[in-house]
Amino acid sequence: MMRRALPLALLASVSGGALAGEARAAPVLLISIDGLRPGDVLEAEARGLKVSNLRRFVNEGSYATGVVGVLPSVTYPSHTTLITGVSPAVHGIVNNTTFDPMQINQGGWFWYAEDDKARTLWDAAHDAGLTTANVHWPVSVAAKNVTWNLPQIWRTGHEDDRKLVRALATPGIVGELETKVGAAYADGKSEDVQGDQNRADFGVEMIVQHQPGFMTMYFAALDHIEHETGPGSAESHAALEQIDGFVGELIAAEQKVHPDAVIALVSDHGFASVDTVVNLYRPFIDAGLVTLGPDGKIASADATPWGSGGSIAIRLARPNDPALKAKVKAVLDKLASDPAAKFDRVIEGPEIAKKGGNPDASFYVNLKLGAVAGPFVNGSLPLTFPSPVKGMHGYFPAAPEMRSVFMVMGKGIPRGRKLGEIDMRAIAPTLANLMGGSLPDAQMPAITFGK
Q: Among 15, 78, 172, 356, whose CB has the most other CB atoms within 10 angstroms?
């Protein structure tokens, strides 16, 4: 079960309200490293990692030993919780990709900020009188109250993607920063270390040129490489050490323009090694829940497996149809008793709601660690087959392997303070308070640090 409270060690330092009286009005820089595991910083030396800039947060600031995330523990829902303080059921970003059983959206993701129903840290900063900036944060296209926005979006990896970003960014900002950096801005599908280096360069120039009072910065390469090579691989360690250098550059730039800044480091989820794909479309097709057309594509779906890495939301075409729900449950019950299907557990509507997951899902399947949900490719694939990727996340957030990162240093932050294990929803209200703003609808109280 997802934890509903902060650890006992923090209860004495947590308020039940918005804590407006303790606002410090500091500039805030929020850096996310997708897929960063707590141990890769806290146990860096034992793991052979040279990440001196990340270790600064441990030595010079306060840090969680782990962050319990959201359902599902994938990038877009998690990053939206990180800047809103509410669960996916509330903010509405319930997966990475949009619900698209007929596959007409060509693999589209939840890129657009209008799909986020909750108040964000950008809103809180704006209302506190701060300018704001963003470099590549998920769900940021046309985000309100972002003064200078370089949103995350891609379509094909073609060079036209750069034109798309330019068209959707704050007018003039791409060209201005390209002139300062002396290079073109990376296209949205560039998820390698070079792409992160490029965005770090643009982030540094954003800080130097505009000195935003609140800025979000996102790095993608570690997650990308962990998917390809597995968590803890030599390749992922090498990538993290390079990203550590980018973080150092951002810290130096921020502290130069804002000596009183608070700098926070977060991640969205942990990682598990995987070896097997579970293809729920096979039994759903066999049961007549998904129908294929003559072209082999999906023609109709009474029930759709909506994969989210290590878990699968089951969305019904007629959720109030008891016969359909019973038919789907019978299929899932049979799979749950088959070891080959690698089911960990199946939960239904009330428990999904309790965990803050997709309110449109009638069932949610958690796979065993080591298995990953497969998308629809064609109707002939079996229930299981070897995974083309070696690392995955998306499992129910109770799994220790899914723990993510929260570390913070700067004005008013105690040095070397261990915060224990925290709920991801506590991060946004904490940062809002530090910048003199508020997120009154956050589902967890903010962390206070004292003197």
A: 78
State which amino acid sits at residue 332.
Answer: L
Spatial separation of the C-alpha atoms in residues 241 and 116, rounded to whole Å: 33
Best CA proximity match to 247, nearest among 57, 47, 38: 57
DSSP string, 235-283: HHHHHHHHHHHHHHHHHHHHHHH-TT-EEEEE-S---EE--EEE-THHH
Q: CB of 402 within 8 A of CB of 69?
A: yes
How is residue 397 annotated by DSSP?
T
Contact between residue 428 and residue 76 where contact means Cβ atoms under 8 Å apart: no
Mean pLDDT, range 219-238, rounded to an integer: 98
Cis geometry, peptide bond prior to residue 72 (ω within 30 degrees of 0): yes
Q: Which domains does the chain have, with CATH numbers?
A: 8-271+399-434 (3.40.720.10), 275-388 (3.30.1360)
Segment 21-67, tens digit of pLDDT? 344 589 999 999 999 999 999 999 999 999 999 999 999 999 999 99
- Say how far apart CA 255 and CA 208 lie, in whole Å: 10
Choice among 6-10, 174-178, 343-347, 377-381 with the minimum mean pLDDT? 6-10
Question: What pLDDT is recorded for position 449?
Answer: 86
Q: What is the pLDDT of residues 93-140, one digit of tens each?
A: 999 999 999 999 999 999 999 999 999 999 999 999 999 999 999 999
Instruction: Outline where 133-217 has alpha helix (H).
Output: 160-168, 173-181, 193-210
Q: In the structure encoding, which two tokens stand for residue 28, read together?
A: 């805030």
Paired sense of beta strands 406-410 and 262-266, if any: antiparallel
CA distance 217 to 137: 6
Report residue 111: phi and psi, to 5°.
-75, -25
Phi, psi of 135 (to 5 degrees): -125, 100
